[in-house]
Specification:
CATH topology of one domain: Alpha-Beta Plaits
Number of helices: 3
CATH architecture of one domain: 2-Layer Sandwich
Strand content: 15-25%
Helix content: 40-55%
Shape: rod-shaped
Order of helices and strands: HEHEEHE
Bound molecules: iron/sulfur cluster
Distance between the termini: 61 Å
Number of strands: 4
């Protein structure tokens, strides 16, 4: 029968084994997520964009800028009509802008 003195080191060894296994799992998960992000780039569907600027506010990577676009209809009279545009190189594919867009104008594309 196992004595209490023998149990301590065995328990310690088991804790180390479980810790190592969990660290490996977390490392693999982190690397796969990073890889997925870097493979994607955001894209704005111009027709759905209302120029609200939400996306550029949440983007930490300065990968979105707004540009002026004349309205298609001459009946509407507004000073400036804006649309968002993704700058490909700084975009990390984090998808924050997709979550922030109220009109679902942003989609993620493969790089
Ligand atoms: S996916 Fe991320 S980095 Fe790319 S434009 Fe959107 S918020 Fe910016
Ligand atoms: S959040 Fe959506 S609707 Fe607003 S400016 Fe960005 S792309 Fe256009």
């Amino acid at each position: 029968m196992t004595s209490v003195d023998e149990l301590g080191p065995r328990r310690k060894a088991e804790q180390v084994r479980i810790r190592k296994a969990l660290d490996e799992l977390h490392k693999d998960r982190k690397e796969s997520l990073k890889g997925e992000e870097e493979k994607a780039v955001a894209f704005v569907k111009e027709g759905l964009c209302i120029g609200c600027d939400h996306c550029s506010i949440v983007c930490d990577d300065d990968a979105i800028e707004l540009y002026a676009k004349p309205l298609a209809s001459p009946v509407m009279d507004v000073d400036v009509n804006k649309k968002a545009k993704i700058i490909r190189d700084p975009c990390t594919g984090c998808r924050l802008c997709v979550l922030a867009c109220p009109t679902d104008a942003i989609v993620m594309l493969d790089r």
